[in-house]
Each structure stands twice: as C-alpha cells, then as structure tokens.
Amino acid sequence: MNTRSKLEDKELEQLERLIRETPIEIDLVNHTMNKYESSRYTKQSESSRTSKKMRQRVMMITASAAMIFSFLFVTSLISPTMAATIKQVPVLSSIFKLAGDLGLQTADEKGLSTKLHTSVTRDDFTLSVSEVVYDGTRVSIAIERSHIENEKETLMNRISDIELFINGNPLKSFAPDPENSMNGIIIKPGKDKDSAIIEFVDERNQGGGPFPEQFDLTLSTTITGIQDPLKIDIPVENKIEDYVILQPNVSRQYNNIHFTIEKIQFTPITTNITTRTILTDNSPVAELTMGMDVVDERGHKLKLSGGLGSYESNGSDMIMDHRYTPFESIPKTITLKPYIHLFKEYPKGEFQMDENNEPKIQYIPELEVTLPINSQK
Fold first, then answer.
1. pTM of the predicted model, to two decimals?
2. 89-237 and 244-372 share one CATH topology?
3. Which residue in 66, 71, 76 sits closest to 19, CA to CA?
4. Burial tier of 346 (Cβ tally within 10 Å: 0-12, 13-18, 19+)
5. pLDDT by residue (tens digit) across 320-373?
6. Which pLDDT value is given to residue 198?
7. Cα dihedral angle (345, 346, 348, 354), rounded to 10 degrees?
8. Cα–Cα distance for residue pair 280/154, rounded to 1 Å
C-alpha cells in the first residue's frame, strides 16, 4: 500500500512537470492526458494500473492549470489597441464602497443599493451611472466617466450644472416654495478623479413634499466642453426596512438661543436629525454658525455628511436637517452637543484654526440634550 502511494505521488509530480512544459492549446486537458498516457506505456505494468481516484486528481490539476495558463495566454495576446480600448471602458467597481462614506459603504455591502449599467455618450465623452441608493432621507447616485489619458481635470470639476426630474417633475416642485427652492443637490468625491457622487434630499421637514418610495429619476448634467446636456434615466427605490423615527420635541434655552430637537431618523445609511433654532432677539440666525456633535453612550461620535436648512419669519428662525453617518447599531442613548464656530477678529469671516488646522469650536453645555432611544418604528 505504501509503495503504491509513493508511486502515485511520483507520477503526479511527473504529470505536474509535464503540464508546466506543455504549450498552451485550446484542448490542454486532452493534449496533456495523451502525453501522460503515452509516457506511462513505457513503464512497468504496475505503474499502468492507476486508480479512478488518481485520474480524477489528474483531471482537477490539469483543468486548474488550463484555466490559469489560458488567462495568461489570452492576456499576452491583447494588442496595444485592444488594451487602450479597455482603458476607455468605465470600471464599474463600487464607487460607494471606496468613496469613504460609511453609510454608502453599508448600502453596497448589505445590498441596499441598486446596481446599474446605464450610460450616455456624446462627443467621445461617456458618462455612466453604476449605483443608486435611497433610504427615505437621501438619494445618492454614483457616476463615472470613461478614462481619458492625461486628463488633469476631475469629473467633479467638469460638471457645471445638474437638473433632476422625479417622474418627469422638476426637483424644485417638491420644495415648500418652488420659486425659491434651495435645490439641495451636492456633488461629493467618488473613488478617484473619474468618479463622483451626486446627492440630494427632500425638504419634507421644511414643509416640502416627500419623495415617492419608488420613482423614475432623470439626471441632466452639463459637462464643460460639451454643448448639450447629457441625460440618463435612473430607477430609484427605497429598499430600507430597518429604520427608527423619533419625535422628541425637546427644547433648551441659552441667552437668546432657543434650541429644539424636533425629529431623529436612523437608517442603516444615514442618521438624520432635524432641529429648530430661534433667536429670541430677532437677530439673523445665519450669523450664529452653529453646529452639533452626536455621541452615543460609549462616546462614539458620528461624522457629519451634509445638511439642509431653511429660514422662517424674518430670518431668526431656522429648521435644519443634519445628516450624519449611521450608527453600527441603534444606541441606547445619544447626546446632542451644540457648538458655535470661533472667528478671527481680522480678517472678518475667517475661522480660528487649531493645531490640526481644523476650525475651532466652542460647545454650549446649556443646549446639550441626552435622549434615550427606543427602537420602535
């Protein structure tokens, strides 16, 4: 038994050597097996009695080698022209996964986004949409252009205008005042200079209309150097089922600042917090430049990803949606820590910067709010 096992191992080693020495052909398996069989006939009769199991092992090794060698062979035959053509095709690896937004990474990993392969070409410029996600709070669209050698300008910089239509209606028709819509469209960096993320939100918390749970979106974007806008139709669907909405309506007062937490929404992609700030002396709230940190019971602070606000009355009343990265799991409590930015006396309007070159802030403990979170929809 031991002698036969050693013999089989020896024959396998010889076979592997033959595979490495065999030129690549379309029928690599049969060619190598014929060569192997003919070499075995010159041996002793004992070596010719290979078991069925041995042959299966042979076929597995040969097939694996064929796959590897065929890939190398085909790759080596690609002409410079073909290689250049391949470089022009957009690489549809997930922009969401590589863009640095934890919420979008989560959407990609958990299958909450919709993968797309739609594109439009004009004047040798191809714009593609590879992924879209909507969680009832924000819509994010991953776009990518075909790679252009020696292109120094990023895709973000080449976008000069964006228009969006939901089921044929302009985005501003969902605003509380379509004539004075804030638009709410932002462009964020993608995974490289050839990609970007277009993001927008509704204004339901500012008095506007909510987006449908599912809709057809038309993206029309103007690219510098191209005369006519590029238009792409994108199906959008809210796939989120796991979410929590709270309406605490908790207020704090400090000097002339009246601060209220109106609504909190948790999704796997976004933490959205709606606040109302009123300056009781009727001074412009825009001059306050107030922000807010969000921290859970373990001290984990969320990263701010965006925001949208609107003014009421004479500008002393503001409703603000603060959008943050998601929590890994719904926390037991969260603490909201409002702060103001500190500015230089001269020149006016410039932030004071700390040792890390970040704007200096000053927390307002009197406005701080800690809330228990009940995980109920």
1. 0.72
2. yes
3. 66
4. exposed
5. 999 999 998 899 999 999 999 999 988 888 999 999 999 999 999 999 999 998
6. 97
7. -70
8. 45
The H-assigned helical ranges of the chain are 2-21, 28-40, 52-77, 80-88, 95-98, 102-109, 155-158
The ranges assigned to domains in the chain are 2-77, 89-237, 244-372
- In whole angstroms, how large is the CA radius of gyration of the chain? 31
Tell me the CATH architecture of domain 89-237. Sandwich (2.60)
- CATH superfamily for 244-372 is Conserved domain protein. (2.60.40.1640)
pLDDT digit string (tens) for 194-223? 999 999 999 999 999 999 999 999 999 999
Q: 3-class SS at 139?
A: strand
DSSP SS3 for 366 = helix
140 and 104 Cβ atoms separated by less than 8 Å: yes
Structure-model confidence comparison of residues 135 and 42, the more confident one: 135
Contacting residues for 271 by C-beta, under 8 A, at least 6 apart = 264, 265, 294, 302, 323, 324, 325, 326, 327
Whether a cis peptide bond, with omega within 30° of 0, leads into 347 is yes
